[in-house]
From TrEMBL:
Gene Ontology MF annotations: ATP binding; sequence-specific DNA binding
Keyword Nucleotide-binding: yes
Modified residues (4-aspartylphosphate): 54
Name used for this protein in its record: Two component Fis family sigma54 specific transcriptional regulator
Domain of life: Bacteria
The UniProt record lists the keyword ATP-binding: yes
Originating organism: Inmirania thermothiophila
GO biological process: phosphorelay signal transduction system; regulation of DNA-templated transcription
Residues covered by the Sigma-54 factor interaction domain: 146-369
Length: 450
């Protein structure tokens, strides 16, 4: 079903009504106008995508309607209809801004073909606008992680992506929920269509309905032209509602109606427009608890929570830190070769990462600014990574000795958490088993407890 809004303009009632009825049955949202004046009044709302306009009408020509629409800044596409075709008429219509013209009597299949062509053009324009504001990561810009929690997450993404199921992604801030949403879209049947992200917490409450569903010209103070809305921009593609838990209750009701009816009604419009869009939502809040508190609608929660993906915090898959570090060094290293020295890597592995992957990326970006000679050292890391020591200890031991003690603590704690299984501890730390044994021998010689 198409979401195009079509206006049929013709002073002959029989032609106008038959064509409008046929297009309505074909799935288009159709309005009618019996004159040029009536058409301009309807077009002024700014939400008409295509106008099928007769060239000869009593009050003004169809070409004059096109000219006035263009003068008003309207971007409606015009298909002109005439029983008096001539080369000069066609040229004049095109110069005025018409998309094309058709000869009466019209053949239904020809009309549908032309509307399909216009829909393709409008879709490409929408995708180009979306691409200018968002670049969805290419395959080479993704980091594949090997920890069991992330491999399980990857399997869930692969299962749900080819379906049209609504997905709810949950997890702490900075865990990469937006990356997961893009990956679902990339692997879906909608991959060639728009991916439109929306930060629900960043849009003022007074504007969020207009941003999501669009508005007509004059719908409210400051609406000097029509706005399509992000749901219609995402038609046939995916809309990603990030921080969906921040939506105010009145907006939750309207979102629920869109999910149930698969139609959106722009602010100021009396017509609901069908929309074919997959919804992926994300939140770092406990929506079930919010439902119990009465701050999130239970019916909307069930609509969104068809398939839930929980993204683990980085502290629960520390073994992926080295791969993430390599990924960010490639992304932000400006083509140069960079590496971490062992002491710096040990400190990154031991950190709890309350800001998760986003915090790690910020740390690497900062370190790249400070580092020299292609090596990131402890000195290039933020202050919170240097465990404070007593003045006596600082004077008694070198930096390397202090870092080795810190590293020993990390490794011994990993062995303890793995229940004494050194192979499992090595896997979690992202190092080889032989490396683990070698380091344990070093710690024993140095007198560290094991």
């Amino acid at each position: 079903m198409s979401s195009l809004q079509v206006l049929v303009i013709d002073d002959e009632p029989a032609i106008r009504q038959v064509l409008a009825a046929y297009l309505g049955r074909a799935g288009y949202v159709v309005d009618q106008a019996a004159s040029g004046t009536e058409a301009l009044e309807r077009l002024a709302k700014g939400d008409v995508d295509v106008a099928l306009c007769d060239i000869r009408m009593p009050d003004m020509t169809g070409i004059e309607v096109v000219r006035r629409a263009r003068e008003q800044g309207l971007d409606t596409q015009f298909l002109m209809m005439t029983a008096y075709a001539s080369v000069s008429t066609a040229i004049e219509a095109m110069r005025a801004g018409a998309y094309d013209y058709m000869i009466k009597p019209l053949r239904n299949e020809d009309v549908l073909h032309r509307l399909g062509q216009i829909a393709d053009v409008l879709r490409l324009r929408a995708e180009n606008r979306a691409l200018r504001s968002l670049v969805v990561g290419e395959a080479g810009d993704r980091c594949r992680m090997e920890s069991p929690p992330m491999r399980q997450l990857e399997r869930m993404v692969a299962k749900v992506a080819p379906t049209d199921s609504t997905v709810l992604i949950t997890g702490e801030s900075g865990t990469g929920k937006g990356v997961i949403a893009k990956e679902i879209h990339r692997l879906s049947r909608r991959a060639e269509q728009p991916f439109i992200p929306v930060n629900c917490g960043a849009i003022p409450e007074t504007l969020i309905e207009s941003e999501l569903f669009g508005h007509t010209k004059g719908a409210f103070t400051g609406a000097d032209r029509a706005k399509k809305g992000l749901f219609l921009e995402a038609d046939r593609g995916t809309i990603f509602l990030d921080e969906v838990g921040e939506l105010p209750l009145p907006m939750q009701v309207k979102l629920l109606h869109v999910l149930e009816e698969k139609k959106v009604r722009p602010v100021g419009s009396e017509t609901a427009r069908p929309v074919d869009v997959r919804i992926i939502a994300a939140t770092n809040r406990d929506l079930a608890a919010m439902v119990a508190e009465g701050t999130f609608r239970e019916d909307l929660y069930f609509r969104l929570n068809v398939f839930q993906i929980q993204v683990p915090p980085l502290r629960e898959h520390r073994e992926d830190v080295p791969r993430l570090v390599e990924h960010f060094l490639r992304r932000h290293g400006h083509g140069e070769s960079w590496r971490l020295d062992p002491e710096a890597e040990a400190m990154l592995m031991a950190h709890d990462w309350p800001g998760n992957v986003r915090e790690l990326e910020n740390v690497i970006q900062r370190a790249l600014i400070l580092a020299e000679d292609g090596v990131i050292t402890v000195a290039d890391l933020p202050a919170q990574f240097a465990r404070p020591s007593t003045p006596r200890a600082q004077g008694a031991r070198t930096l390397r000795e202090q870092v080795r003690e810190f590293e020993a603590g990390v490794i011994l704690r990993a062995i303890e958490e793995a229940g004494g299984d050194r192979r499992e501890a090595a896997r979690r730390l992202g190092i080889g088993l032989s490396t683990l044994y070698r380091k344990l021998e070093e710690y024993e010689r140095a007198g560290y407890a094991s």
